[in-house]
Amino acid sequence: MKVMTKKAALSGLSLLGAAVLLAACSAAPEDSGETGDAAPDFQPCMVSDAGGFDDKSFNQSGFEGATAAADELGVELTAVQSDAETDYAPNITNLVDQGCDLIVTVGFALSAATIEAAVANPDINFVIIDDAADGDFDGATDAENIKPLLFDTAQAAFLAGYAAAAYSQTGVVGTFGGMNFPTVSIFMDGFAQGVEYHNAEKGTDVKVLGWDRAAQDGEFTGGFEANDTARQKAQALIDQNVDVLLPVGGPIYQSAAAAIRDAGREIAMIGVDADFTVTDPSVADLMLTSILKGIAVGTEEAVLAAGNGEFDNSPFIGTLENEGVGIAPFHDFESKVPEGLQGEIDDLMAAIIAGDVQVESYLAAN
């Protein structure tokens, strides 16, 4: 596999996260031993956002999926890591110039650059993770050669919010994000809905800080780096007595974890995209649960299809029903959560799938 960075002719790295959600729009790909006529000459490529391929989150998950597909196809993945927003368009152009047949772009921040490149290069297929590639907001993807991979994480975040409200002893939970993009705020809004549902069902009064459902706005760092700004955002919420914290935005959870460890009291954290207990064991003791996306398998299926000459531009939307989103086990917190909570979560999941409990999001079926 060829991995490049912008500065040294463009590079990144990844480790295999064993507990990335094992489902997407259909069953996991089977190794048939046949890759189709297109595979030997097929060049898959990938561009990260500024979080990098080792973010323990959605860049890493997408990288793992693309790598698995390339290995199965018997070809080499070229992966370009972006260090800043200004790298996105040049990195995609670099891959176009290298003759890539499929370019996977990771994240909503690359949407404009992906659309521009796709329109200019109709003979190259694109897959974009976490964005609809709908720059004109008409409800349709802006180019026929782009396949969006989308995830209705509000459903899974709803479950995490319910669990957070059940676990909280202070009656205050909090969240903050990198930037107020729909694919970030969907976690925060679903989380708040889950807390509200617990309050209504159990007669509790758990408060959510960091997100205002009415205003659809909240606390954001302005980026997706693990830095002092992210730590300050986490600290501000900790100072308001939160005992469950949901940071949404790749590496910013690392800053939140540092603030929690300095707090001197028990504060749980909720991960996003991947099961942080598995992908980053250094924070396992802090993890109440994680809100999961099936990014790895969804990406693997899309790359395999393209490599076999079967590219499909129809958007994939992950839900609880198709197991494209989910919630991780309580792991180390299993003995700390209220007795019977896992059963309540299971029942609530079934009710959401059945449509008996409605979770609002921009991806929810009408």
Keywords:
Rossmann fold; 34% helix; 15 strands; seven-stranded parallel sheet; alpha/beta; globular; 366 residues; six-stranded mixed sheet
Distance between the amino and carboxyl termini: 42 Å
Instruction: Evaluate the radius of gyration.
Output: 20 Å
State the CATH class of the largest domain.
Answer: Alpha Beta
Helix tally? 10
Order of helices and strands: EEHEHEHEEHEHEEEHEHEHEHEEH
Provide a short characterization of the protein structure.
The chain has 366 residues and is of the alpha/beta class. The chain contains ten helices and 15 strands.
Give your account of this protein's structure.
- With 366 residues, this protein is of the alpha/beta class.
- The chain has two domains: 2-152 and 295-318, Rossmann fold (3-Layer(aba) Sandwich); 153-292 and 325-354, Rossmann fold (3-Layer(aba) Sandwich).
- It has helices spanning 58-73, 88-97, 111-120, 153-167, 182-202, 228-238, 252-263, 276-279, 295-307, 341-354; strands at residues 2-5, 44-47, 78-81, 102-106, 125-129, 146-151, 172-177, 207-209, 211-212, 217-218, 244-248, 268-273, 287-293, 316-318, 325-327.
- The strands form three sheets. A seven-stranded parallel beta sheet has the order 1-3-2-4-5-6-14, with helices on both faces. Strands 8-7-11-12-13-15 form a six-stranded mixed beta sheet, sandwiched between helices. It has a two-stranded antiparallel sheet with strand order 9-10.
- Helix 1 runs parallel beside helix 9 (295-307) and helix 4 (153-167) packs antiparallel against helix 10 (341-354).
- The longest helix has 21 residues, at 182-202.
- The radius of gyration is 20 Å and the shape is globular.
- The relative contact order is 0.18.
